[in-house]
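ugh ok fine here u go
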Amino acid sequence: MAAPEDGLPITFIDIWTAKPGSQNELAAAVLEIYESLVRHQPGFLGVRLHKSVDGSRVAAYAEWRGHDALKALHEDLAFQSAWTRLSPFVESHDSGIYLVSATMES
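structure:
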């Protein structure tokens, strides 16, 4: 995967499919990782966590100053260790790096 030009703000979106009945536990575990580790990382701007209304998925929409900051997080051993704590609640996971192409507000 080609990295976006560093210096451009990026959005990293994670989407997890929760094991049946474990959406709340998964959301709490993701929030704990963001509160204890991610929020203190250089270049982290913020996150919005979402739970699907059907109880099956959790999504994290995280904004970063640039690709290098996100890469540093993923190379951090404490983060890697914390991330493994999600596995009891996860059926599947997908993620991607995005650049904002448009915004609209009412």
